[in-house]
Amino acid sequence: MSLVDSLCGVPSATFRVTEKRTRKSSKVQVIRLGEDISVNATTLSEYCFREADGIAHDVMTLLGAVKFADRMLRRHHSKNWARRIHIEIPVFKPNAWLLPKVHETLTQCLNYLTGDDWTFAFVERSGSAPAQQQSPLSDISLGNRDIVFVPFSHGLDSYGQVRLLQLAEPETEVVCVYADARAGGGHHGALKRKRLTGVQYVGVPVKVRPFRHPEGSFRSRPFMFYLLASLGAIASGGNRVMIPENGQGSMGGSLVTTGHEPKHRSCYPGFTVRLSKFLEALTGKRVTFYHPALFDTKGAVLRSLAKRGEDVRAILHGHPSCSCDARLASRDGKMYHCGICGNCLLRRAAEHNAQFDGATEYLFSDLTAPTLENALRPGKSNVKLTFFADLARNGARDMQRLADIGATPQHRITQTAAVDLARTTGDDIAVTTIKLMGLLEQHALEWSEFLAKCGQDSWISRIARG
Q1: SUPFAM superfamilies from the entry (predicted)?
Q2: pLDDT at 90 exceeding the cut of 80
Q3: What is residue 261's predicted lDDT score, i.e. its pLDDT?
Q4: Residue 224 to residues 261, 402, 439: CA-CA distances in angstroms?
Q5: d(CA 19, CA 291)
Q6: Cα–Cα distance for residue pair 56/93, rounded to 1 Å
Q7: CA–CA distance from 273 to each of 109, 146, 249, 256, 416 (Å)?
Q8: Strand positions, DSSP E, 28-68
């Protein structure tokens, strides 16, 4: 850490990726290939349909190094969100990585996503890239270029949008990049009971050793899964990547920020545009990201599934939304959605709007209750009420703040966001403004109806009012 960084309270670190044993240094943190991060060449073949040229392995090393650094270097949340991170990476194709445009677009992409200051240095890696096996995606017809790759969590949004895509485009082949970090045994085991007919699943070919106390924000996570999906799209010739998040999830974090944290841009088009520019600079090929539910609420997505004849209650039962650690949201040994985090409140408002109340079991089940404790379902568990009270307060107020924007025509935040969206998507500003206002007004309506159902004297309504 430099003297300037230290005085300013900015965490700073240099990471060096190496294949060799290296002495520890107070100035450089070593990341060992094969120990701290490892690349599975067999799994990697799922993304690359031809012999490796080294770029694919280089990308995996980059992803592992970014994840390692992001999790290792803790933020000073109470002082300064941003960090300065420099990574030295050995690559098989240095001529590609040393192009100024590659470094420029890579750092712009990560800086925009995480709110940090990233820099990289690339050096030539000894030897040649390990040979890849033939792709196991045997059902994918490489002569058919109508293929869509999807960063896939098996949550409600990702599952719902894949189903809607299948119903709208039955001839399109879908490849899901399984992104749920909670499936500890690997994606294949986790999906045995959940597979969609006609969909291929591919795993993450890079692993990073676990940390005891990792940095919890992990803003770089979408960089890994979107980039993996893009690599598959480029290799297959399909070049289409679908981002399944609904509009509230895609843009809510950019319109409503928390404290001193920068805007949350994991599903925002500004990030995918920057990622596309990086990929084009690196590979010479363009990836098309599209956001089919960008201007839809979660309630609208549920209504669309119901209109197409899907069993929405079964979908809700099998596909989670909760952001709370499942171990905290248990009762009598059974896991529940917590019911009060931001994701759960959004889900509950959507269920009410689409007339599917009662489809999900929640730990805090009775939102008409006068207190948080009274909302808790009966049973035995060590529930941390203080933790959940903070969770509920943040979730409800964020939902209300987004609704307040939608209830105010010509709001400055809306106008600024519309200009930014139009710039990144290439659409007309006036049309984008109308679409964005429609989304925000629908969110405000759904949230207002949900609070009315809970009652003005309920604890959740009082929290929303501040």
Answers
A1: Adenine nucleotide alpha hydrolases-like
A2: yes
A3: 76
A4: 21, 28, 28
A5: 39
A6: 10
A7: 9, 21, 17, 21, 18
A8: 28-32, 37-39
d(CA 276, CA 282): 10
For 333-351, what is the mean pLDDT?
93
Q: Where in the chain is the domain with CATH 3.40.50?
A: 147-290
**CATH number of 147-290, picked from 3.40.50, 3.30.1660, 3.30.810, 1.10.3470:** 3.40.50
Tell me the whole-structure pTM to 2 decimals: 0.90
Separation CA 248–CA 74 (nearest Å): 28
pLDDT band at 137 (very low <50, low <70, confident <90, very high): low
Q: Which 3 state secondary structure label does DSSP give 215?
A: coil
Contact call for residues 244 and 162 (beta carbons, < 8 A) = yes
Give the integer Cα–Cα distance in Å for 166 and 152: 15
- Provide the 8-state DSSP code for 376: B
For residue range 48-79, list pLDDT tens digits in order.
Answer: 655 556 888 899 999 999 999 999 999 988 78
> What gap in Å lies between CA 229 and CA 197, rounded to an integer?
20
End-to-end distance of the chain based on CA atoms, in angstroms? Answer: 41
